[in-house]
Amino acid sequence: MVKTSSLRGLFTSALIGSAVLMIAPSHAANSVQHQQFFESIAKLCGKAFAGKITAGGSEDDGFSGKALIMHVRECSETQLKVPFHVGDDHSRTWVITQTDTGLRLKHDHRHKDGYEDKVTMYGGDTRDVGTANMQSFPVDDESIVNFKQNGLDQSVTNVWQMMIEAHTFTYRLKRENRDFRVEFDLTKPVALPPVPWGHE
């Protein structure tokens, strides 16, 4: 006769096994979407592209009227560094990193002397599967603290999006009363920009 404790053990094992079977396919699907998105950008490594503001521009935004260049400059199996040049301002680099749960986007801001800006390495992690062409990065807690410390309360609801298609890469920032978008033409690589500040 089988003891009650043994039956409980078998039942528990069966439940755990079933849970693993249910969770594994979903996790694998998420990983595929993030990986495909990451690889689509990685294929552009070493190239630079010109962009233009397609939404949310204004005369005093620091972007309008200036040459906008993205450069997929540094690429490893788990991280991409993409400087975003705005005219003669070479302070911004997007850092896209693979994590255990998806992708992370951070904004590395430097001064001309290479030192970090007070507002730097802000961004967030993906919270859903996204698609092979689009990923969203809601602001994380660490960035919210940084924004508040530096008087940028309007940024605490930021959501960044990146979209990549056959001919276009789009960078988008969304929050209340703000929808800023820059689209880069991937069909026409341009001359490589200078080294971003603080990088070699």
Describe this structure in words.
The protein is an alpha+beta fold and 200 residues long. The protein has a single domain (36-190), classed as Beta Barrel (Lipocalin), CATH 2.40.128. It has helices spanning 4-42, 141-149, and strands at residues 48-55, 68-71, 74-75, 79-86, 89-98, 103-109, 122-125, 134-138, 159-164, 168-175, 178-190. Strands 1, 2, 3, 4, 5, 6, 7, 8, 9, 10 and 11 form an 11-stranded antiparallel beta sheet that branches. The relative contact order is 0.17. The model is unreliable at 1-30 (pLDDT under 50).
* Helix percentage: 10-25%
Query: What is the mean pLDDT?
Result: 87
**Low-confidence residue ranges:** 1-30
Q: Distance N terminus to C terminus?
A: 72 Å
**From the 3D coordinates, which CATH architecture would you assign?**
Beta Barrel
Strand content: 35-45%
Report the principal-axis shape: globular
CATH fold-type name: Lipocalin
DSSP summary: helix tally: 2
Helices and strands, in order, run as: HEEEEEEEEHEEE
CATH class division: Mainly Beta
Largest sheet data: 11 strands, antiparallel
- Helix/strand/pairing class, anyone? alpha+beta
> What's the gyration radius in Å?
21 Å
The total of beta strands comes to: 11
**Overall tally of domains:** 1
Keywords: Signal
Signal peptide: 1-28
Protein name: Secreted protein
Organism: Shewanella inventionis
Outline the fold blueprint.
Blueprint: H1 4-42, E1 48-55, E2 68-71, E3 74-75, E4 79-86, E5 89-98, E6 103-109, E7 122-125, E8 134-138, H2 141-149, E9 159-164, E10 168-175, E11 178-190
